[in-house]
# Entry
Amino acid sequence: MLKGIDPLLSAELLHALASAGHGDRIAIVDANFPAARVAHRLIRLPGVAAPRALDAVLSVLPIDTFEPEPVAVMQVVGDPNAVPDPVRDFMAVLARHGAPVPIARERHAFYAQTADAFAVVQTGERRFYGNVLLTKGVVPPDPAA
# Structure
């Protein structure tokens, strides 16, 4: 156990987040997502809700400020303007961390971007559309150093 680190952040997940570079993507996906098929690096958080996983990840991961759309969610098939409950929860978590509002990507485009992600974190989220894609930013130098 480490002080100041969310206990949900396992050694494997912390290693992946720290190893990812600027511009790399981290996907947090629900239990129904085909993560084993698309992930290069799969980290499982069974029994954990996707918004809770997002909150833990954002406690240590900076979001890219250079890219115009650094956060994405999956569009609802047949109703691209719908905002499912997990996405509403993501938006609240993102706002608490000062991250931008996510843009919605078409399902297959979201799958393709996830297949290119540095790491995929599969949660136990059972609500549909509990998927979010984050682009890692940078930690600026300390001005006092």
Notes: Residues 55 and 93 are 6 Å apart (CA to CA).
